[in-house]
## 1
Amino acid sequence: MRIIDTPFKGLFIVQPTIFDDNRGSFSEVYNEREFAAKGIHVSFVQDNQSVSRKGVVRGLHFQKPPHAQAKLVRVVQGTAIDVAVDLRKESQTYGQHYALILSADNNLQLFIPEGFAHGFAALEEDTVLHYKCSNFYNKSAEGTILFNDPQLKINWFVEEPIVSAKDMEGEEFQNFISPF
């Protein structure tokens, strides 16, 4: 397993080692010791999985403190563009986003620390996204930044996004007051 730095402090690409043979393949997708060696000290308490049609955009979601969540995100079927927006006021990358193609073929994962909004767009039919969370979901702590906010300029690689009513009503970044 390789844990690769990104330009965003605390945000990492995780590249599992794949062992292939005539039976199929095996990979270790999480290892607490490997994460700790990279300075990532997190306990995961909840796993979530979503299935999305091609063109679905979900996000940009976050949980406010004290219910903030770190996430380890991967695609187990299909392909998605995964996006993390830095909401940490003191960060040099505040208000910037990082995007990565995650797919069942490339096996990459994205570790997103607390203090980021997260979203993704399904680029294939029946894309299955699985993610581990460091805190339990709390409805009263949820927040949403508008997925197509003009200030963030995120390219979702989707011409006609399919978006929930809740996500369409996300907060514009220029009006957002970060709790992080």
## 2
Amino acid sequence: MRLIYCQIENTKVHKRLCVNFSPRITLIGGGNETGKSTMIEALHKALFLKSSATGLPTESLRANSMLGHPTVKLRFE
């Protein structure tokens, strides 16, 4: 199974972020405070927490400036 796509919404700095992962290698780069670590944190929580998780694990992803719950959608092949 391979992760091919992720969509992250309403997290710290991402209103909506969509990433298509390459079949070979995907590099994540950018300046400071652009959301690289937030993306990795969201992926980690989506993969390793229960989908019904609440409290601090999900609240730590919430953006103060955006309405709505943090959402992470993953697509596998």
## 3
Amino acid sequence: PQSPATSQTATDLEIEGEVKAALAAAGDRVTQIDLDVLAGQVVLLGVVADQAAIEAATSAAQGVSGVTGVTNFLLLPEPAYEKRLRLL
């Protein structure tokens, strides 16, 4: 996409802060998510504990004023990953 105007960039930064606050308010399971905002579009990236965390993060982002859409790239951990963590 084309680079947004300076005023749009400032708005995107405000939206990013509000989405981060909404994710923090949604609970511990969704606070380890990276996000980016471009022209009101929010992109969520990360690995979360369960499907409920994916839904909570998406819902929290969609509820922020100024968000025009949410693209979700949140994943669940592979089962073998949790077993390796327990061994450490």
